[in-house]
Amino acid sequence: MSAPLPLAITMGDPAGIGPELLLKAWRARQTQHLPAFFAFADQALLMRRAQALGLEIAFETATPETASAIFARALPVAPLTHETNAVAGQPDPANAPAIIDSIERAVACVAQGSARGVVTNPIAKSVLYAAGFAHPGHTEFLGELATRHYGGNYRAVMMLWAEELAVVPITIHIPLRSEEHTSELQSH
Q1: Of 129, 123, 139, nearest to 173 (Cα)?
Q2: What percent of the chain stands above pLDDT 70?
Q3: Terminus of the chain with fewer CB atoms < 10 Å: N or C?
Q4: Cβ neighbours of residue 12 under 8 Å, at least 6 residues apart?
Q5: With 70 as the cut, is the pLDDT of residue 176 above it?
Q6: Residue 160 bridge partners (DSSP)
């Protein structure tokens, strides 16, 4: 029996908390019994962030196919096709192509059968909007990517899940007083 496929983790906004979450998740892999994962991220950025945080982490360039074998000894990182020049705490629209690339490639891995799921790190929507991103957020973008890879027409929803409870929010960060949102709710 072969090992389960790894999870594909997105970088999130490289100026935000995503890289730190990724680093700390890998460090907690044994104590938290985390499944194997790999990240679509800028390895040099992760190395700088680990050093700034005082975290000793080994990194290794990976593909989805090699990630599980690497995971025990190093954080597997699949390189991005776009560079990032992020400074922690200073979001920059110049990093939007790398953020989008990370999400698109993680979803493509699932669609191609080389990853079992996608874990998304936080994005700064304002950064993406400034670069021309046309989606309200991750959820809708993931819905478009599902349509792109699987065909059909998907209505994407975000689910918050725990063993005791699963919740799907009724809104997508729209105030309940919004007329547009009120008419949308009435139509369903």
Answers
A1: 139
A2: 90
A3: N
A4: 18, 19, 21, 22, 99, 102, 120, 121, 122, 123
A5: no
A6: 167
User: Reduced to 3 states, what is the DSSP secondary structure of residue 39?
Assistant: strand
| HEC letters along 78-126 | ECCCCCCCCECCECCHHHHHHHHHHHHHHHHHHHHCCCCEEECCCCCHH
Find out whether 114 and 149 touch, Cβ atoms under 8 Å: no
Give, in degrees to the nearest 5, the angle at Cα 72 between 68 and 75: 80
Q: Using CB atoms within 10 A of its CB, is residue 21 exposed (0-12), middle (13-18) or buried (19+)?
A: middle
Hunting for tokens 């776009």 — which residue is that?
A: 82
Mean predicted lDDT score pLDDT of the chain: 89
